[in-house]
Amino acid sequence: MATQSDVRRLALSLPGAAPVPGRFAFGVQRKGKLKAFVWIWMERVTPKKPRVPNYGVIAARVPDLAEKDRLLTADPVKFFTEPHYEGFPAVLVRLGAVSLSDLERLLKAAWRSQAPVDLTRGAAASAAVSGAVDPLSRSRIATRRTAVRSARPGARGAAARARKRTGGKGESLA
After folding, report:
1. How many whole angstroms separate alpha carbon 93 and alpha carbon 173?
2. Domain positions in the chain
């Protein structure tokens, strides 16, 4: 069973992590903004009324929607979602049902999904030296990030950009 103090301790132990001002949330600086990777769940108890904090549940970012689906189907007692989080890469976690080791792994993955690449590479290098992180898992995460970025709508490869510049012909329009 994990508590809020465990979440605070584990989140702040990650490189570059800082508390988000004004609420129970932790983030990391990326491109000048504090990007939250874990926060308290704001539950809508009464329809059309403001959400209220549920201190027994946290929301944590995940790398992608496939990972979210995997967690939700693997252990619905620990992990769940609500309509507000549909299509968003975050999972809700019941603190009373999750172990400290599971929470630590989840927060590290959440941090990696929001941290800038240079910070994650530095953390991976220092952890690999100490033997704490499998270097292969880091390369899989980097590969997944690259694949997700290149699969975005409007993303074009070199060949597609060349065809667009030439109007579909083999020669240049210039």
Report:
1. 56
2. 4-166
